[in-house]
């Protein structure tokens, strides 16, 4: 017997509700309840410029630098030198102009299979381990996991995430610093300033294939619909956080790969941390790691699970110490 239109609509609605409940149940049951803050024994130390092991500091300790720069690096032996040269040239000149300005650069070697660690150590030897530190992870955690390990080992009052490819002009740190300043007064000393490429979107679309453009718009829609509504470019790897904001967000973060930026900003929104979005100069760097199709699907799944896992209570906004 054929169903009437109203019966068909009711059936489809019931099916949709069933599927949503099923997805919610899967998201809840498969969730790892607490973020992975465990360090392997080898990751509790860094090698200084003299070749000796020193214990890594903790973000729970009082800050001793004005700025920490965290550079996640996976197989970046070719591109890392350009970024480090530009960053350290800027930081050294700034320190000469203002001796009260102190900094550190933390290169997080995320289980690289090439000479990334060796390349980074040359900068440690040149500038000293008080200014440049290399934190090597036993195995690849993903960009989000690498950034978190660097952030949790930082000494700065402010902490900058910066990609190893140097796609963002490092001097644009002054723009994100201004964005952070404009958010004052910071509630509970927490604020975040995000570099943004949104103003370059039209030019980038013209250079992309139709399929990649479609994937990009789909991803942006899912970010807006499920997680973060106020930031147009969540994925730019140039973000500046106050120390307290970094502690609260990164100790709660669960996702360690491509979609970690979205969870980071989602957590910030939930904690009512003020967020600024600031246009920065950005250049496509040869050798940039393109996001393959299957990674887009994984990111879409992660976006859905971010929303559902916090909504169902599988994930909690808790601050934990790492071990």
TrEMBL record:
Subcellular locations according to the entry: Endoplasmic reticulum membrane
GO MF terms held by the record: dolichyl-phosphate beta-glucosyltransferase activity
User: Residue ranges of the Glycosyltransferase 2-like domain?
Assistant: 68-245
Q: Which UniProt keywords apply?
A: Endoplasmic reticulum, Glycosyltransferase, Membrane, Signal-anchor, Transferase, Transmembrane, Transmembrane helix
Name the domain of life this protein comes from: Eukaryota
Q: What class of enzyme is it?
A: transferase
Primary location recorded for the protein, binned into one broad class: endoplasmic reticulum
Pathway info: Protein modification; protein glycosylation
The family assignment reads: Belongs to the glycosyltransferase 2 family.
The protein's name in its UniProt record: Dolichyl-phosphate beta-glucosyltransferase
To which species is this protein native? Answer: Calidris pygmaea
């Amino acid at each position: 017997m054929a169903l009437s239109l109203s019966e068909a609509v009711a059936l489809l609605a019931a099916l949709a509700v069933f599927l949503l409940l099923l997805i919610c149940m899967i998201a809840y049951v498969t969730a790892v309840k607490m973020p992975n803050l465990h360090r392997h024994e080898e990751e509790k130390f860094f090698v200084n410029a003299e070749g000796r092991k020193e214990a890594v500091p903790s973000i729970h300790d009082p800050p001793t630098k004005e700025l920490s720069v965290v550079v996640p690096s996976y197989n970046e032996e070719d591109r890392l030198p350009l970024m480090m040269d530009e960053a350290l040239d800027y930081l050294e000149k700034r320190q000469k102009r203002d001796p009260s300005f102190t900094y550190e650069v933390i290169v997080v070697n995320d289980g690289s299979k090439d000479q990334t660690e060796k390349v980074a150590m040359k900068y440690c030897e040149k500038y000293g381990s008080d200014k440049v530190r290399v934190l090597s992870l036993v195995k690849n955690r993903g960009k989000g996991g690498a950034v978190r390990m660097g952030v949790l080992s930082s000494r700065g009052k402010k902490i900058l995430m910066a990609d190893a490819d140097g796609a963002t002009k490092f001097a644009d740190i002054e723009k994100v610093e201004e964005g952070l300043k404009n958010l004052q007064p910071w509630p509970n000393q927490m604020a975040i300033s995000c570099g943004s490429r949104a103003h370059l979107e039209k030019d980038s679309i013209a250079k992309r294939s139709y399929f990649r453009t479609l994937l990009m718009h789909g991803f942006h829609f899912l970010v807006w619909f499920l997680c973060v509504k106020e930031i147009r470019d969540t994925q730019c790897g140039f973000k500046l956080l106050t120390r307290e904001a970094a502690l609260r967000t990164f100790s709660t973060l669960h996702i360690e790969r491509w979609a970690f930026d979205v969870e980071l900003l989602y957590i910030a929104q939930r904690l009512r941390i003020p967020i600024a979005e600031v246009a920065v100069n950005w250049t496509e760097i040869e050798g940039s790691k393109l996001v393959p199709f299957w990674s887009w699907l994984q990111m879409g799944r992660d976006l859905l699970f971010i929303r559902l896992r916090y909504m169902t209570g599988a994930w909690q906004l808790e601050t934990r110490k790492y071990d």
